[in-house]
Amino acid sequence: MIFDWHAHYPMQVVKDLSPHSTIDRMRRVRGRATIGDRIRALILNLASRIGSDRDEHSGPRITLDGMEAARVGVLMSVLFRPFEEMDLSKPYAAPPASRYFPALLEDLEAVEAHVDGLADRRARLAHDRAELEQCLSDGATAIVHCVEGGFHLGDRDDEIAANCAELARRGVAYVTVAHLFFRQVATNAPAIPFIPDPLYGVIFPQRGRDRLTPRGEAVVRGLVANRILIDLSHMDPGAIREVFALLDGTLDPAAQVPIVSTHAGYRFGKQQYMHDDETLRQIARRDGVVGLIMAQHQLNDGLRRDRTKTLEQSLDVIRRHIDKIAEVTGSHRHVALGTDFDGFIKPTMGGLESTADLRRLDEALHAHYGDDAELMTSRNSLRVLRRLWAEPAPEAPRR
Known about the structure:
Blueprint (H helix, E strand, L loop, with lengths): L1 E6 L11 H8 L8 H16 L13 H6 L2 E8 L2 H5 L13 H17 L6 E3 L3 H10 L2 E8 L8 H13 L4 E3 L20 H7 L10 H12 L3 E3 L5 H15 L7 E6 L12 H9 L3 E4 L3 H4 L11 H19 L5 E3 L20 H12 L2 H17 L11
């Protein structure tokens, strides 16, 4: 069975999130744009052109048929509003606006309506432990809501706390606190493939003394209080250190809250997006997992100069990450999968173009690692999610 920690299923449900609509919107810079605004808009336009699909006719990488073929048991469905994060109506690095959260909930409800309307019930929503276990028992894919970007949660402390409680009531399992651009929540590591890290810092500067800002601390507090997982993906090392310091100092000194990085890997090269030994040990100390992203830009850094073209070449890279994480943490207990399919990561690893291809990855990992492969593909992740949902969550409204 496959458990995918990070998949952009809503991209095919919420129509204005498609790469093509992103291109159209990025062409329009509202108001009196500065030269910097126009440069940033051009870069965002290029990012959208890279997009997700293999070509104009290939369609989404995540499909029901693909999930069934790969025996995907759990798909963490990532809600993300790109136009709110970019928000060209505001100066760069402006704090979040309250209007972002209602738009996020509209997307969540669109996914709910879509999945509830599936005729054959191959995939179902899981908002809690009971629904998760029922899906697994019935052989259906459990689709679980997640959110990418703490900027969605508002500006003020009370607003953030209330919005975290609402997400918990609706069955959201984790929030990726940082993302592509600084919005005064937490500083992020560069993750745009065609911009080297030093150049990113010039074009998209991140100002301030705190890496995890007071607004970011409010997000972390709200997530812990409402039993929503903290996702470290996209944070830079400074922000990650401050998250652990906050948890260890006042919020969770007994290390009862598991921490995840849903789509990343080991830092073999220089990209701060990938995790160093210290971060991996901290995740392991809290019995969390690192989901391996299936993006060439991140996984190949420090291992290959050219792209992988075949599954065999990709497997060599993936195994290097698995083995290094196991070396640092002491076992395979903290390795997982987080593909980021349909999340603007083109090109994906060679031979892993869609969810259906995860079947071949599953078979190859079992051939190489034996029974431990099941830990990496599903059991580690199920352990963390079951621990999150071990106690009753706030009552969720049902459609």
